[in-house]
Amino acid sequence: MSNPSLLILPGDGIGPEVMAEVRKIIDWFGAKRGLAFDVSEDLVGGAAYDAHGTPLHDDTMARALAVDAVLLGAVGGPKYDNLDFSVKPERGLLRLRKEMDLFSNLRPAQCFDALADFSSLKKDVVAGLDIMIVRELTSGVYFGEPRGIFEEGNERVGVNTQRYTESEIARVAKSAFELAMRRGKKLCSMEKANVMESGILWREVVSEVAKDYPEVELSHMYADNGAMQLVRWPKQFDVIVTDNLFGDLLSDCAAMLTGSLGMLPSASLGAPTANGRPKALYEPVHGSAPDIAGQAKANPIACILSFAMALRYSFDQGDEAARLEAAIQQVLADGVRTADLMGPEGGVAVTTAGMGDAIIQALDASL
Fold it and tell me: Is 185 a catalytic residue?
């Protein structure tokens, strides 16, 4: 059998730096655990624009559709702020999501014990936090038509349309229920059914899908209350499913419960392909951080954890994903810190590459 295939798209800013550490981890699993991958690399975002005049070349898009999973670093930067909207670096990422039909975005918010003091919330509120937000990613207000800026009378009007079909809601709901079955069998669906017709349909369809998952405890919550509850007592949740717009807001809110964007991975999944694996794109939540690019300060853990998600959700290697996560937990417990993780208690300061090396050492110790 051929090895599973990975397309790496480092992107812009700190993307290439953090992705270099992921390559170390991938090589380690091939050498020490017999998990070899066929790895290729290409351009996306500003790097692709510089080379091709487009944020995602058609050939790169074709390669993304052909591989088992895509790992992406980050896109964007001030250099590209004045480009036309159609060729901004972020359009490359949006095209990947759309053409790969990655409708289910998984955003974990996990608070590592060693970093509980980094959250702006009290330690007892976030210690041990482990929740998953499932965000619908290919429909809703970001893609609905009509959209645009129009002249109406003597003034301009900005229009965006919130639109969901029954099948679009059902498929992301099913992915959330399946995830809940693998976790704590508890799912909270968030919308605004009190003021939005799309929210009414969302609640109805999620409730219908729930009939196929009688073991999962389903609850419903208005999204604005959900935001409040996330900062009041986030551990009341296990899996949250919500639409594209609310998922964008709620997942960023949940991200900061953990104290550092440099720790948070994500997965964007589509429907299973002929080999049973879903179309998949894995990326850290953080941006390109151009202010620290090239300075060896970037925290690679979010990107490394994104690979751990790939092991779990694309390659059915949950035990090896847990091994990698435990190695990261151990490194943090030992006080190893990139600049973003240095607190009043200090720690062992390391560079981006130093953090990758420390995680490799912890992986070696796990054998």
Answer: no
Question: pLDDT tens digits for 100-159?
Answer: 999 999 999 988 888 888 888 888 898 889 999 999 999 999 999 999 999 999 999 999
Q: What is the pTM of this model?
A: 0.91
Pick the closest to residue 247 from 303, 202, 182 (CA basis).
Answer: 202
Name residues whose C-beta falls within 8 Å of residue 267's C-beta, 6 or more positions apart in sequence: 105, 106, 280, 281, 282, 306, 309, 310, 313
192 is catalytic: yes
Q: Is 252 a catalytic residue?
A: yes
Residue environment code for 211-249, b if the CB has 16+ CB neighbours within 10 A, otherwise e: eebeebebebbbbeebbebbeeebeebbbbbbbbbbbbe
Task: Output DSSP code: residue 83.
Answer: S
Say whether 124 is catalytic: no
| Active-site residue, selected from the candidate residues 192, 238, 243, 282 | 192
Q: What is the pLDDT of residues 267-289, one digit of tens each?
A: 999 988 888 889 999 999 889 99
313 classed as catalytic: no
